Every structure is written in structure tokens, then in C-alpha cells.
Protein 1
Amino acid sequence: MGKDNEEISIDAEVETPETEKPTETNETEVDELTQMKELVAQWEDKYLRTHADFENSKRLLAKDKLTAVSYANESFANDILSVVDSFDSALAMIASTDSEDGSDVLDKIKEGLELTHTQLLKVLEKNGIKVVECEGEFDPDVHQVIMQMDSDDKKTGEIVQVLQKGYTIKERLLRPAMVSTAK
């Protein structure tokens, strides 16, 4: 029986240190694993935020590019050159005529200027530039009141007179129309 007790005590001494060491190692490994998981989560969050910022920037740049292209077209410059040519022809015609021709010359000048004006309006409209409507009620988004007048046939706030035309390009206001309104 004495031998049996010695074997048990030896086994007990050997087993006790073996169970304590793996527990300490496991706790250290678990702590390290937890720290690594937290670190991975932080980096993943940073990555997702950076990627979202990048995608937002990319979308804004595409939008800005589309806006720039639609509002600054090169063909406008080419189309306006034909209008400049028409004005040059009209001025050359005025310079080459004698002042004695009188009314006939003035009629030709008037006709030339009217044709040039019509051509200019067509070129502007072709490029998305339109005259602001000035009929009826005052609209602060597209009109600028310069003065107010008494008017028998217009209601208060209605446009009485257009002092300078306003223009829009596509949906953007280039210049407000300067108007006078009824008191």
C-alpha cells in the first residue's frame, strides 16, 4: 500500500503544474487575440470610412465635371463668330455708302441689324441661353426691381416695364431682368 500512495502523490505533483501553465498561456493568448480583434476592427472601420470618403469625392468630381461640361461648351465660341461676321458686314456696308442716299441706306442698315439680331438670338438659344420672361407677376428669382411706378392697368407687384432683358443658360440665371413694377 505504501507504493500506491507514493505513485499517487507523484502523479498529483506532476499534474498540478501542467494544468496551471496552460491556463496562464491560454489567458495570455486570449488577451492577445482580443487585442488583435479590436485592432482589426479599428482598421476595418478606418478603411470603410476612407473608402466612403473616396466614393463621395469621386461622385462629387463626376458631378462637377458634368456641370462644367454642360455650362462651358466650346461650340458657343464658334457660333458667336458668325454673329461677329454679320456685324462686320453691316459696319462695312455703312462705311461704303454715301450720306446722300439717306433713307434707302437707313432702311438697309435697319434690315441688316434686324437680321443680325435675329441671328444672334438663334445662336444664343441653340446654346441653351434664353431670354427671361417678363410678363405678369414679379419673380425675385429672375427679376431685379430697379424702380416702382404708378400704373392704372397693372396690379401691385406686376411688371410695368423691362429696362434690361435677363438671360438664363439651361437652368442657371446668367443675368436677372431689370424691371419696374407697379406700386
Protein 2
Amino acid sequence: MKLTLQVTKTDGETFEVQTNLFVIVAWERKFKRKSAELSNGAIGHEDLLFMAYEAAKCHNIPVPMSFDEFIKRTDDIDVISEPVNPTEQDSTEGN
């Protein structure tokens, strides 16, 4: 399961990151939630920001040392591509 996130910093700079399994598991551990919740829309800004923060570190994109400082320096976050629910994908194949 991967998400592509676009982060807009307060200085106007933007960057995109893609989550990976490490980021998703780190999110599950920190927030005591399951990745299945990503497909039903039960996700907030803090969740997206945490994933972007961890993904940026994985992709060697410079970020502040603390997550809170990353939040302070972020103006907006958007989901560019969302995970596909496998059951929905199977039902659309062959149409």
C-alpha cells in the first residue's frame, strides 16, 4: 500500500513523497491503527503529515529534527494518489 503525498512548505516550496511499508508500519505503531483504515477515509491531517515526514526522511529529503517543527513549517498537504482497495480493483477488471 502506497500513498503519494504533496507537501507545501510555508516558504512556498513543494515536494512529493511516496510512502513505503516502513512508513506505513511506523504510522500503525505510533497511532495504534491499521492500514486498512486508509482505504475507508478515516485518516486525518496528523496522519498524513506523519507519513510525509517519515517518507521524506526515507527519501533523504531534509526535514526538521522534530515532527512538530515539520508541522509548523508545512502550509498544506495533499494526497496525490490513494491506495486502491483490492476488492474494488478486482471488480473493475475486465469491464
Protein 3
Amino acid sequence: MSASTDRSSSNLPTFRAGYLITGGSLVTAGGLIALAGLAVGGLHMLSATRQWIQEMEVPPSELAKIKWTQARSAAAAGAAAWQNGVSARDTAAT
């Protein structure tokens, strides 16, 4: 009876340590290779973006200032038109 009790109590699978260590090592190596690839790709994208910005005629900060000024002017014009009661039909006719 003790032999059948030992069999039923050991329903857990048996693992060989060598295979688990090999599998874990391969997963770690793959992760390190992926991390190296990410670093190389990221550095290339950063370098290409910096070069692209340097080649622009108008730097992004200056372009943002220009667009902000345009947006402020448009908002002020819209608010003035709304307060003065100018309709879209009146402005389209001119």
C-alpha cells in the first residue's frame, strides 16, 4: 500500500536541471541581444532626428512661437467677431 501512496503523492512532474538552466540562459541571452538592438536602433533614431532638426530652415522652437502667435491672433479675431456680431455670411461676401 505504501508504494501506491508514494505514486499518488508524487504527481508533480520531474524536471532536469540542465534543460532548465540551458533554457534560462538562452532566454537571458536573447533578452540581452534584444536590448542591444534597441539601444543601437534608438541611438540611430536620435542621431537622425538631431540631424534633421539641424537641417531645418526654421528651428522647431521658432516655428512653435510663430504658430502660437498665429493662433493667438486668430482667437482674438474670432472673439472680436463674435462680440461685434459679424456673421460668416457677411465676411464671405467681401
Protein 4
Amino acid sequence: MRDFHETNEIIGSLMVTIYISGFSIGPLFLGPFSEMFGRYPVVILSTWFLNAWILASALAPSMSALIVFRFLAGIGGSAVMTISPAICADMFPIERRAFSTALITLAQCLGPACMYFLVRKCSCVLSSPSGPSMREFHLRRFGLAMGKSRVDAKQSTS
């Protein structure tokens, strides 16, 4: 929010809410698409869709663009969680289906929980007052930082 000079806390909480809204609307379309076109293409395409909108969110020029990008990322992110029980039902016989579905659901729940603690542990580096903001971090990570390029930075240090 600091990068967009936004002080309204409601807009800040909207970032999570709008992603969850997309996450809840996505299965309405992606579930039937997986029945018509197959599970594999829908999962792969929606994962690429998610990645594209996450990248767009990292590089969003304004707060309104970020809200739209987060909503679209939520739609793309919902496919794997929605379609994975159906994939288990297709792959395993009835006797082993409960265990496989439980294992996939456990992984889907533990992944974000473990990532939360990892981010909390690493956030001290990124959120220090003298360190870069998250937007600057993403821009550097993708090599899109304004000013000196990596080549210029290497030449100035030598």
C-alpha cells in the first residue's frame, strides 16, 4: 500500500477479499470446463493464468489495477484446489480414494500454513526501513528495476 500511496485500511483488506472472491467464482466455470475439456488442460492453463496475473500484480501500476489482477489471480488459483479431488477420484479405486483425497487436501492446507511461517521468518529482511519495499524487491527480482541495469551496477563496482 505504501508503493501506491494508499492510506485507507479498507482498501488494504480488500486485497485479500478480492482474491478470495475470485477463488470462489472460479470453480463455477473451471469445474464444468474440466468435465468438457479434460482435467489436465484446465489445470495447466489455469496455473499459467494464475502465474500471469500474479506477475501482473507484482508489477501493477495502480491500486485499481492491482485489485483487478488479484481477482483474476484468484480465479486461476482455484482450479487446482477444485479439480484435485476429481483427479483423485479418476486415479484411485474406491478403496484407496479416501486416503489419497485426504493426503491432497492436507498438502493444500499445510502448504500455505508453512509458507506463512517462512515468510514471517524472511520478512525482517524485506521490511526493514532501510531495505527495499516489496514492489522494489519484485522489480529487482524480475530485472525490471529502473535506473541502473545489472550490467551498469557490475561496472560501477569494479
